[in-house]
Structures are given as C-alpha cells and as structure tokens.
C-alpha cells in the first residue's frame, strides 16, 4: 500500500478510496486527469457585434464631452442661460414624448409610472435646483479654480468608470452621483445663479434622463440605437471641435480606441485563453434561490 | 544543516545495527522524529486540527517521536503536553487573517530552527495550504537540509486572482518538497495541477474517522417521522443556500419530515428566514454550534444524512453519518464520489431539483423499509477508514522520504528557477539565498552544538513511555 | 522530611519547662508559642490549655519539653521522657541547650529521625502584623504554611492575656506584653467615641442629604463626605483588619483635610486677601472675553490662510460675537456681588480643603460657561454635519444603513432621491471645513478648561482617597503590614540543626496605597484615550472627569 511497493497487478485501478486496492499510494493510472477540461463554455465573439456593444461606451464618453462643451460656452458667455433652459425644456419634452411612445408600443411587465409621478419628480428637481442655486453659486467661491477643475475631472472619470453600461436604466447610484457632483462643481464657477440653475438642469438631462431614453431605444429599436450612438459621437467631436481642436482630436482618438481597437484586442486575446476545469471546482448555484426567502 | 539530520539518522541506524537486525528489517523499524507544522491546531477546531492530532497519536503509538508546531492562541503560548507526551509548541507569531500567521519568509526561521534542532527532527510534515506557517516551515526545513512532507487538505480553483497567487506560492514551496500527501484522488489531481508536480511524488491517503465514536442507536429515532440531519458549518461553500431551497420543497410535500441542523455560521440567517416564511419552527430545528462529542448524539436521531457542499476534498461528515447508520444523500462534488460505495450513498447534482429527487427516492425507500439496518451499514463502514491505517501509510511515506537526498543550495536555486518560472523563481531563489545566509548567521551566533537538546516525551527514548512503562510494570507486580 | 519548628526569640533563655504551641495542619511543622516553667501541676496545665484553645480557636497542645543546661542532672533526661506519659502526644519534641553552644539540639521521640530546622521569629512583630494580600481571618488548612503561622500566632493572644497580672498558677515565658500597643489614653478615647459616634450618626440621619446634585462638584464632595462620616460613626466596632484600616484612614484624612482647610481660611481672611481676589477676578473674566472676541474676529477672516465659506463663516462669527457680548454684560452685572460671594464661599474651607477646592472648580465652571456654550454649539453643528455626510456618502455610493441588521446594505434609490441627496452632499461637503474649524477651536478652549478642572478634581480625589493612616503605620510600625518574610542564617554549627531567623518584609509603599485607598469615583473605569479621541472626532460631548453613572446626558 505504501509508495512504490508492488508491481502492476491484473485488476484494473478504480478511482475510489473505500476499497483497498493493490496499488501503491502514489500510483498514477492512465486515467489520471481524464476529467480535466479546458476552456469550457468559452464564448466566441464576432468583431462587429463587439464594436456595436462598445458603441454605448463611446456614446457615454461623447455625452460627457457635450456637457463640457455646453459648460465652456456658458462660461465664455456665448450661450445665455435662458436659451439653454429653453433648449433643455424642448429636448426634455421631445424626449419624454419619445419615451412614452416607445413604452406604449410594447408594455413591459413592470407597473408603469404615472404621469403624475413624473410631474412630481420634475417639480422636485426644478424647485430644489432653483432653490439651492444661490447657495451652490457661493459654495466653491473660496476654493481655487484648479481644485474645482481637478475635482470635476476626477468625478467625471468616476462617472465613466462606474457607469452601468449593460443596464443603464436606472443609472447606477455612484456614477450618477459622481456626475452630479462634478456638474455642481462646474456650475458654481459660472457667473450667476440662473446660470447655475440652467447648467444643473442640463446635467440632469444629460446624465440622468438621457440614459433612460437610450435604454428604451436600445430595447425597442436596436437599429436606430446604432445610428443614435454614431450621431452622439459625431456631435461630441464636432461640439468640442468648435471650442478646442486638440480636445476634439483627443476625443476622436479615444472613441476610435474604445470602439474599434479594444474589441480587436479582446478577440485576439481570447484565443490565448487557457482555463482549466475539473471536478475540484467549486460548484456554482445557477438557480435563483431568493424566491424561497422573500 | 543537512549533515546534522543525517548524523542523527546514522546514530539511530548504528544503535539498531548493534542490536543485530538485518538491513531490510532496519528500514521498516526505523523510528522518525517528526515535526508536524500547521497554523491550525487546538484550541481551534476543524478537520485539519483533528487530523494532525489523531495522526500524531497513532504515530506515537507506533514508536515515533512527534512534536507539533503551531502559532500561539491567545494566552496559550510556549510548550504544552497532550496525551501520550505529544509536545505542542505554540510559537509567538502574529496572526493575520483566519488564524493564518503573517509571513515575511524570514522571521520565523530562528524559532523554527530552535525547535527543529532541539528536537532532533528528521522529517518536517506541514499541513494545509492555507497555513502560512506550514509554507514557511517547508522553506526553512529545506534551508536546514531536512526532508519534508506536505499534506493538502483542500481543493482550489484556478480562475480567480487569489487562487492564482496561492497556487504560485504552493508551486514555490512544494518545488523541492520530497513528498506530498492528498486526501483523495481528486485532491491529488488538483494539487498536481496547481503546484506543477510530478504525480509520482504525490500519495493519496484518505482521512479517517474514529468509527467507535460513531455507533448507531436506532432507539433514538422517532419512528412516526422521518428526520433529515445536516451537520456542517453554515457557510456558502457548504451549499446552505441549496438547503434553504430544499427545506420548503420537501416539507410541503411530506408532512412527516423533520430537519435537524447542527452548526453555526453567517448563512444561518437564510435558514431562519426560510423557517419563518414557511412556519416550520416545529419541524426545522437549528441546534447551533455543536461540540465534537455531541455530534454522534445528533446523528443517531436521524434517518437520512444530507450534505450539500459545493466543494469538498474528502468529506468526513458523510462517513460519520454512514457510520451512525444513516442513509447518506450528498452532492457529487470534489472527492465525495470516491468516499463511499455506491449503495451507501445517493449522489446528486448540486442543485435543488436533483437533491430533492435524490432525497425523495431515499425517503420512499425508507418508508417501504427497503434500506439496510443501521447496524449493517455501520459494520460495513467501520473498517473503511481508520487512523491506524492512515498512520501506517504515512509511515511508509516517511520511510521513503528520509532516504532521499536534500538538494544542496546551488541545485535548489537551479530547481527553483527552472520550476517556478523566470520571475517568481528568481525572486525566491534570492530569498532562498538570503534564508541560507540568515541561517549561517544564526548558526554563528548560537552553534547547533551548544543548543540544549529537548527531553523526548514521545519516541523510542520518550520519558512518557518509560514512566508509563514503569507504571505498567509496578501494576503488574501488584497483580 | 524536614521538620520545621517556629521558635519565639524571647524563649531562647527561658527556664526549663514545657513547650506550648500548635502543630500546623497539612504541613510538617510546629509553632512554639510559650514555655511553661517548672514547677506546675499537670492538671492545671491541661485546663489552662483547654481554656485558651476555646478562647482563641487554635488547637493548642503541649509540644514537648525545653531544658536549659543550668544544672546538669542525670535524672532530668528520664523525667523529661516521663512527662510524655502525662501529656500523651503523637510526637514529642525534646529541645535542649548545651553549654558552649549557641544552637539547640532537638530530638523527636518515637519517630524516624528527620532533619530539623529551627526558625526563630519575633513573637511581638508576628502577632501584630497583618500578612498581605488580606484573606479571611479563619484558620484554613489549605492556606500556605507561612500564613498559618501568622494566623496561629495572632489568634493565640488569649494565651498571653491570661497571666497578665502575674498571679496565675502557672509561670510561662513568652512575649511579655505590658498592655496592648497603646496607652490608657487610647482606651479612654475608645470609650468616649461611642456616644460621639451615636450623636453624629443621628444627626446624619436627620439631615436630608439625599438631594444628590450630580452637576456640582461641591455637592458630590458633600455626599462623599457624609458617606464617610456615616461609615465612621456607625456605633459598631470595626470587625476585621480591613474595615478597621478603612475607618482609620477616613478619620485621618478628614482630620488632615480640615486642618488644611483652616490654614487656607487663615490665609484668606487675614490681610484682606478676599477683596484682592475679587478685584482681580472681574478684569480677568473681561480679559478672557476680549481675547475670545479677537479670536472670533480672526476666525471670521481667513484664519491661517484657510479658505472658508464666506457666508457661513460670517453667520457663525456674528452669532458667537453676540454671545460674548451677552456674557460681558452678565459679568458686569455680577461684579458688585463677587466679593460677598467669595467671602461666604471662603467659609466652606472650614469644612475642609477639599470643599474649598470643589467650590473653586464649580466657580471655574460657572465663569467659563460661555466657553462651554460655544463648545456645545460647535459640537452639535459638527456632529450633525458628520452624521449627514456619512449617511449621504452611503447614498452617494448607492448604499444604506440597515438598522435591523446593523450593517450597510446596497439599495437602489429613485432618481429624485439621488439628485437631492447629491445636492445636499455637495453643499455639506463644501461647508464642512468651516464648521470643523470652529469646532476645533472651541474644543481646544474647552479642553483647556477641562484640564484645569481635572487638576482640581484630582487634588480633591487625592485628599479623599489617600490612605494616610496606613502610610503612617507603614512608616512608623513597619512590621504591622507585612508582605512576606525573609530568612537569614542565625547559626550553623556542625552538631546542631540549622537555625534561621525569620524577619518580616514590610509592604511596599506603592502597594500600601493600592490596597488601602478609599474607593472614590476615580477608581471606576473611565473612557479610554482612544475612545475619547473617537468621541472628539465624531463630535459627541465629553465630560471626562465624571464617572459613568453620574453622567446623565
């Protein structure tokens, strides 16, 4: 029974412990590791499908760029707050209409929000933003501009990193909060209280409501979704280009990188994947057991 | 260093030669000085702890000298003696996480050297890959020129980052370990893959169960009901979420079904919520943490033993359940299919549906009375896994290991670099050189020759044996 | 086996006779207590031993015989052996001194000869000393040997009292006490103290001292003092060593306290010191207020180059400035009465220095009330901000605090909740430094006052709890409080057993204080330093000198 003690006997070896077998303890049978499996359940990606999915990342990046463009215009006084408010209002109405249309085509299982609830939310947004805008205006007065810019940049980056790209509606708490924090910081640098109010409304539109509409669009009309993404990207590059050419070039490079190069990298590296599975792996619970306790 | 270890062997051998035995018999009668090292030992409770303790007791019985090295637990520091002169060193090392010590690769060397030299250790036997102290001791023992054995008690995946790191560490520490012991064939395959080992130096020696502690007692059962017993820590790895799904399914179908659940853990909440939601307070009893001595009394109250583990190297619980005469239903994961013969266990896939189907089959058989009696099951199981057998097989591993040569430093460095990859291999080759230099410094400060030798408590010249021998003699005189 | 014989030094030169003493239970040793001289009537000796045994609770017996080498008679040997038949014993010690030898010889009759060891002890010291740590006074066979020796010797006091006037039928040698360790004055005082105690305790019962106002340290001190007096004046005599020591300590500390108090009074009321103090006090308070005002002005600018929120800064600054203005008016309103208050307050020193100090502490608290107020406002505001920020930070990360399970759960908030939460979070975050600075400055001021009060409290506590009697006892009669013993070799001659001298090791001063200090609130566990810092950080109000149950906030 000890290691290296007996020559091969005629009986076949079995992978059981309860039977005393005439083999040494360190015997290695031909069937050793026969249950080893490699790369089980590996997904094969297609390049254009991945590019299409990556489009939503590029789109979000462009959203941030558009927001920054709007802020730049506001700061230089090229865009008056009234115009921005009016545009935002129109966009919001159009978007809400589109949202309702898309919702009515196929009714999803969840109970829909009533118009009243939507109106209530809108009232809360507007009143709070309007009420706090003088406070927000003075909030960062004593903080240096560089600090505010750095903080906003970090927060916008956090927004992009933590954005739930697979399930953007409702937007994830952390990413939305980071974006709102950044917009408050930026808005407080603007000259007047009304500017602040207009900027925050715009931020709400871009960071909170737009992802909801886009998600709807993606569910209901996938073909249009691609078009919208491309449109947003072009809009972002164009808008930034009107203010700073370098910024536009950098954005274009980033977008190209995210949407075209990264998928290529994924597909090439996927071939190198070597994953080992076997009976020793921890079993996974695939079923949803939460209904037993809720 | 190596010379010292061999010198002891030779002196041992010369003593036995003088008694006039042949070379072959000598090989079998050779007694070893074994040092078991692990972070896990009493007062901590668990499978590894009892494995080390019971194996050591059986080895002492066979005449070997065994000392155990672990880290200090609270106020328990220094040297303690357990039954039969089993000496335990509780080293004052800092605990980091989950009872595993902090490792810097060096700071444990002075203490370990002290123990190994004082006790004239010939074989270092480390346990559990979760134990940093075990890894440290394997490394230092090689620096000091001792032969090493390692027992792996657990299974590991390959996918996540923590297992990648642990596997690399295992590759390094096991790269010049003489022999590895695994508790099941699945565990062997796993360890060979993880540490990139030659399968020839890996032995499979299953765990054992003290079957005299787990005897059936059908009178404790309630005949009008069917009781399913679950005894495990209530954690995710033991599949307690599955259990939370099984309980309502079966309880709704069978009104005469009871659950008896022993153990404690974070998943207790799941079971309590299930019990509350389905109003099963009179049918599902949660006993909380059980002491080892109480386990048998709980087991004998049941008809069916259920194990829902998601991973398991060698499941002692199902052997204990079968030893108490229960029908065993278990998930088919890890080494579980190797443990019991097919007619004593019902294996299921690790999901609620399959487990429920398996349980229902066994319940139907139990109802119809088509199950063997508890006594007959016990009779079949009781001799499957005994500690005596484990000790015999481990002894053979030791016999093989002490004959092997310990790699000198330059060979060791070569092996590390060729075996563990260029980066990690080079780093740890450097660490090995530093360790060697540190050892030289220690040997210069306190040479081995002037170190006091410890009094043997166990082993061929153990004081404990002699005392008990004297006692036996006097008692026989009296009688 | 070694047989140990504890032998009193005073009996070294006693005339020949019988050894009276006791065997120590559970150990192979004997304590000799006295030597009864020839001639005696055996019946009387037996009756005498019987009496003493019942009176003291120690099992006394005749241990053996003692002989001086004065007249070397041949018959003595036999006579001594015959004595054993009169007093039947298991073991019979025969101790004798020889001419020209300092050591004694000893033989044990009817036993296998073992080694014998003589330990000489000073009977008076051992009898009066108390071995520490203190345990029960009862004889317990499981106690250590040394403890039993001490107990046997001290319990056998009746043995020495019975022949006090030297007219008994027996003559014996032992530590000859000329009365207790005191004089007739002490005895008389003891007699007189009983009616005094009775009257004081009656008075105390009549006084309505239950109105315990925990806020004022004077009242706290008053309640402590009345407790002490109550304990002191209980008409029962103290049972046991520790209770006696406690009473004595309390009495001495009260006396010392009052003496110091009278000294203070003498100083205050001579040379018109009171009015000098009163004249200095009001300008000092004014000065403090001025300084505070300047500090606030500084805070309202850009303190230390920190950029604070201008609007909030101004609001807070004005609020505090108004407060100081109120305070100054209050002080000026009070200024005519300060001298009178001080004059009457000074009378409290007649009750003891501790009362004067406690009153001083209360006055400091009253005079720095504005600082306390600032601190409370600052702390409340800061605390509110901290709590708001921590919960909004959880919202920021999309988490919430689950009260039932005491943990942080993830939670999906609504869009409007997130929006308002983030808005508030941003506002609080940018306003936080301003509040924190105000809090920091006022906390530092508050800590200054707290340290001052802490020193006063510590002094009062020291007066209350220092065991002066025990310390004095340790200094003058070191053997009364023993920590252990030390042995030295007395003589080691070739033919005689080894003689050791046992001397008492006095208790160290530190452990005297530790053992006998009167328990006061400083002995109770208080907040640890880390806990204190944590509380300061979170903005909870701190009262570091108060003990936990008194604190009602």
From TrEMBL, chain A:
Gene Ontology BP annotations: GPI anchor biosynthetic process
GO cellular component, one term: glycosylphosphatidylinositol-N-acetylglucosaminyltransferase (GPI-GnT) complex
Source taxon at top rank: Eukaryota
Cell location: Membrane
Methyltransferase listed as a keyword: no
Listed Pfam families: GPI2
Pathway: Glycolipid biosynthesis; glycosylphosphatidylinositol-anchor biosynthesis
Keyword annotations of the record: GPI-anchor biosynthesis, Membrane, Transmembrane, Transmembrane helix
Membrane topology, record value: Multi-pass membrane protein
Membrane-spanning ranges: 57-74, 83-99, 119-136, 148-166, 193-213, 225-242, 248-269
Family statement: Belongs to the PIGC family.
Stated name of the protein: Phosphatidylinositol glycan anchor biosynthesis, class C
Annotated organism of origin: Cynoglossus semilaevis (Tongue sole)
Organism taxonomic ancestry: Eukaryota, Metazoa, Chordata, Craniata, Vertebrata
From TrEMBL, chain B:
EC number(s) reported in the record: 2.4.1.198
Membrane topology of this protein: Single-pass membrane protein
Region of interest called Disordered, as start-end residue ranges on this chain: 1-24
Protein's GO biological process: GPI anchor biosynthetic process
Membrane-traversing stretches: 423-442
Biased composition range(s): Polar residues: 9-24
Domain Glycosyl transferase family: 216-365
Catalysed reactions, semicolon-separated: a 1,2-diacyl-sn-glycero-3-phospho-(1D-myo-inositol) + UDP-N-acetyl-alpha-D-glucosamine = a 6-(N-acetyl-alpha-D-glucosaminyl)-1-(1,2-diacyl-sn-glycero-3-phospho)-1D-myo-inositol + UDP + H(+)
InterPro entries to which the protein is assigned, alphabetical: Glyco_trans_1, PIG-A/GPI3, PIGA_GPI_anchor_biosynthesis
Any one GO molecular function term: phosphatidylinositol N-acetylglucosaminyltransferase activity
Metabolic or biological pathway, per its Swiss-Prot or TrEMBL entry: Glycolipid biosynthesis; glycosylphosphatidylinositol-anchor biosynthesis
Chief site of localization: endoplasmic reticulum
Residue ranges of every copy of the PIGA GPI anchor biosynthesis domain listed in the record: 71-160
SUPFAM superfamilies found in the cross-reference section: UDP-Glycosyltransferase/glycogen phosphorylase
CC annotations in GO: glycosylphosphatidylinositol-N-acetylglucosaminyltransferase (GPI-GnT) complex
Protein function: Catalytic subunit of the glycosylphosphatidylinositol-N-acetylglucosaminyltransferase (GPI-GnT) complex that catalyzes the transfer of N-acetylglucosamine from UDP-N-acetylglucosamine to phosphatidylinositol and participates in the first step of GPI biosynthesis.
Family, similarity comment: Belongs to the glycosyltransferase group 1 family. Glycosyltransferase 4 subfamily.
Protein name as catalogued: Phosphatidylinositol N-acetylglucosaminyltransferase subunit A
Species classification: Eukaryota, Metazoa, Chordata, Craniata, Vertebrata
From TrEMBL, chain C:
Pfam families (UniProt xref): Gpi1
Transmembrane segments: 250-269, 315-334, 341-368, 374-396, 417-441, 447-473
One BP term from GO: GPI anchor biosynthetic process
InterPro entries: PigQ/GPI1 (IPR007720)
Residues of the signal peptide: none
Keywords, in A-Z order: Membrane, Transmembrane, Transmembrane helix
GO-annotated cellular components: endoplasmic reticulum; membrane
Full protein name: Phosphatidylinositol glycan anchor biosynthesis, class Q
Lineage: Eukaryota, Metazoa, Chordata, Craniata, Vertebrata
């Amino acid at each position: 029974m000890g290691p290296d003690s007996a020559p091969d006997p005629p009986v076949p070896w079995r992978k059981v412990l309860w039977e005393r077998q005439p083999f040494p303890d360190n015997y290695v049978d031909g069937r050793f590791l026969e249950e080893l499996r490699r790369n089980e359940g590996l997904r094969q990606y297609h390049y254009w499908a991945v590019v299409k999915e990556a489009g939503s990342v590029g789109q979000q990046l462009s959203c941030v760029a558009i927001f920054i463009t709007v802020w730049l215009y506001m700061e230089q006084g090229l865009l008056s707050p009234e115009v921005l408010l009016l545009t935002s209002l129109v966009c919001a109405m159009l978007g809400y209409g589109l949202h309702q249309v898309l919702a009515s085509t196929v009714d999803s299982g969840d109970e829909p929000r009533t118009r009243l609830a939507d109106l209530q939310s809108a009232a809360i947004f507007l009143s709070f933003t309007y009420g706090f805008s003088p406070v927000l205006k003075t909030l960062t007065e004593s903080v240096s501009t560089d600090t505010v810019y750095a903080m906003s940049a970090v927060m916008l980056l956090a927004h992009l990193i933590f954005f739930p790209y697979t399930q953007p509606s409702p937007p994830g708490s952390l990413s939305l909060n980071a974006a709102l924090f950044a917009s408050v910081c930026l808005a407080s640098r603007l000259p007047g209280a009304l500017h602040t109010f207009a900027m925050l409304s715009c931020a709400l539109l871009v960071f909170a409501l737009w992802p909801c509409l886009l998600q709807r669009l993606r569910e209901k009309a996938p073909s249009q979704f691609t078009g919208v993404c491309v449109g947003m990207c072009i809009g972002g590059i164009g808008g930034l280009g009107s203010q700073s050419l370098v910024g536009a070039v950098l954005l274009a490079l980033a977008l190209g990188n995210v949407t075209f190069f990264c998928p290529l990298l994924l597909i090439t590296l996927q071939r190198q994947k070597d994953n080992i599975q076997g009976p020793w792996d921890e079993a996974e619970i695939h079923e949803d057991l939460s209904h037993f306790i809720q | 260093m190596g010379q010292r270890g061999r010198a002891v062997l030779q002196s041992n051998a010369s003593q036995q030669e003088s008694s006039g035995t042949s070379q072959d018999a000598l090989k079998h009668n050779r007694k070893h000085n074994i040092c078991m090292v692990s972070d896990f030992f009493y007062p901590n409770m668990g499978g590894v702890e009892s494995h080390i303790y019971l194996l050591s007791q059986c080895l002492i019985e066979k005449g070997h000298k065994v000392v155990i090295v672990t880290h200090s637990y609270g106020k328990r520091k220094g040297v303690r003696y357990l039954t039969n002169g089993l000496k335990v060193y509780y080293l004052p090392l800092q605990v980091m996480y989950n009872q595993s010590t902090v490792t810097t690769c060096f700071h444990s060397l002075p203490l370990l050297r002290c123990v190994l030299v004082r006790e004239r250790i010939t074989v270092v036997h480390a346990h559990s890959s979760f134990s940093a102290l075990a890894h440290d001791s394997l490394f230092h023992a090689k620096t000091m020129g001792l032969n090493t054995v390692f027992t792996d008690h657990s299974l590991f995946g390959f996918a996540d980052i923590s297992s990648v790191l642990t596997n690399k560490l295992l590759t390094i520490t096991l790269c010049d370990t003489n022999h590895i012991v695994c508790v099941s064939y699945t565990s062997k395959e796993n360890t060979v893959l993880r540490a990139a080992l030659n399968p020839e130096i890996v032995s499979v020696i299953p765990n054992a169960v003290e079957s005299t502690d787990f005897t059936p007692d059908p009178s404790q059962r309630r005949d009008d009901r069917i009781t399913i017993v679950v005894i495990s820590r209530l954690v995710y790895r033991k599949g307690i979420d599955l259990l939370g799904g099984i309980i309502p399914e079966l309880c709704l179908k069978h009104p005469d079904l009871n659950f008896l659940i022993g153990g404690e853990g974070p998943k207790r909440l799941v079971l309590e919520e299930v019990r509350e939601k389905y109003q099963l307070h009179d049918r599902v009893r949660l006993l909380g943490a059980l002491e080892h001595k109480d386990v048998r009394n709980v087991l004998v109250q049941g008809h069916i033993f259920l194990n829902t583990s998601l991973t398991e190297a060698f499941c002692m619980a199902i052997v204990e359940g079968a030893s108490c005469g229960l029908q065993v239903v278990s998930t088919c994961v890890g080494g579980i299919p190797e443990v019991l013969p097919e007619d004593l266990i019902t294996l299921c896939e690790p999901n609620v549906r399959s487990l429920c189907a398996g349980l229902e089959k066994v319940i139907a058989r139990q109802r119809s009375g088509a199950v063997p009696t508890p006594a007959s099951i016990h009779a079949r199981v009781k001799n499957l896994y005994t500690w005596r057998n484990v000790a015999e097989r481990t002894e053979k591993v030791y016999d093989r290991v002490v004959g092997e040569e310990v790699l000198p430093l330059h060979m060791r460095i070569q092996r590390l670099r060729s075996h563990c990859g260029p980066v990690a291999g080079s780093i740890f080759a450097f660490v090995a050189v530093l360790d060697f230099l540190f050892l030289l410094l220690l040997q210069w400060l306190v040479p081995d020759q002037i170190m006091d030798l410890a009094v043997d408590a166990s082993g061929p010249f153990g004081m404990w044996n002699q005392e008990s021998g004297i006692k036996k003699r006097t008692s026989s005189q009296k009688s | 086996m070694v047989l140990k014989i504890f032998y009193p030094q005073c009996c070294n030169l006693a005339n020949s006779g019988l050894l009276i003493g006791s065997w120590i239970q559970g150990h192979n040793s004997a304590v000799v207590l006295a030597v009864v001289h020839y001639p005696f009537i055996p019946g009387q000796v037996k009756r005498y031993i019987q009496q003493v045994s019942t009176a003291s609770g120690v099992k006394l017996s005749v241990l053996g015989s003692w002989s001086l080498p004065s007249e070397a008679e041949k018959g003595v040997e036999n006579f001594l052996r015959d004595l054993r038949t009169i007093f039947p014993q298991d073991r019979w010690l025969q101790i004798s001194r020889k001419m020209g030898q300092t050591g004694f010889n000893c033989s044990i009759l009817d036993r296998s000869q073992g080694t014998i060891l003589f330990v000489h002890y000073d009977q008076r010291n051992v009898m009066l000393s108390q071995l520490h740590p203190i345990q029960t006074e009862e004889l317990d066979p499981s106690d250590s040997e040394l403890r039993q020796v001490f107990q046997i010797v001290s319990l056998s006091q009746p043995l020495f009292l019975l022949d006090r006037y030297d007219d008994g039928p027996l003559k014996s040698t032992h530590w000859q006490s000329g009365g207790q360790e005191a004089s007739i004055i002490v005895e008389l005082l003891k007699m007189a103290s009983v009616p005094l105690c009775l009257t004081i305790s009656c008075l105390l019962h009549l006084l309505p001292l239950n109105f315990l106002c925990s806020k004022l340290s004077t009242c706290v001190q008053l309640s402590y003092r009345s407790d002490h007096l109550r304990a002191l004046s209980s008409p029962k005599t103290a049972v046991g060593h520790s209770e006696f020591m406690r009473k004595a300590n309390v009495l001495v500390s009260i006396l010392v306290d009052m003496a110091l108090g009278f000294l203070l009074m003498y100083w205050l009321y001579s040379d018109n010191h009171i009015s000098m103090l009163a004249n200095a006090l009001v300008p000092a308070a004014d000065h403090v207020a001025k300084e505070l005002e300047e500090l606030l002005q500084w805070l309202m600018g850009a303190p230390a180059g920190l950029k604070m929120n201008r609007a909030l800064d101004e609001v807070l600054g004005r609020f505090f400035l108004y407060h100081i203005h109120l305070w100054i008016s209050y002080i000026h309103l009070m200024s005519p009465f300060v001298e009178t208050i001080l004059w009457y307050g000074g009378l409290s020193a007649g009750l003891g220095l501790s009362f004067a100090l406690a009153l001083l502490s209360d006055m400091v608290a009253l005079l720095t009330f504005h600082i306390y107020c600032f601190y409370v406002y600052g702390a409340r505001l800061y605390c509110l901000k901290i709590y708001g920020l921590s919960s909004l930070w959880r919202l920021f990360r999309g988490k919430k605090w689950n009260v039932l399970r005491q943990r942080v759960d993830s939670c999906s908030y609504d869009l409007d909740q997130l929006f308002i939460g983030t808005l508030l979070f941003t506002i609080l975050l940018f306003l936080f430094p301003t509040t924190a600075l105000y809090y920091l400055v006022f906390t530092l001021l508050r800590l200054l006052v707290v340290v001052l009060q802490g020193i006063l409290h510590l002094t009062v506590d020291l007066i209350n709890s220092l065991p002066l009697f025990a310390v004095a006892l340790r200094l003058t009669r070191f053997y009364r409080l023993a920590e252990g013993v030390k042995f030295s070799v007395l003589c080691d001659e070739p033919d005689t057993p080894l003689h050791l001298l046992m001397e008492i090791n006095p208790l160290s001063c530190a452990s005297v204080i530790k053992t006998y200090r009167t328990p006061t609130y400083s002995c109770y566990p208080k907040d640890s330093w880390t806990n204190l810092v944590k509380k300061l950080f979170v903005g909870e109000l701190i009262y570091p000198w108060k003990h936990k149950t008194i604190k009602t906030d």
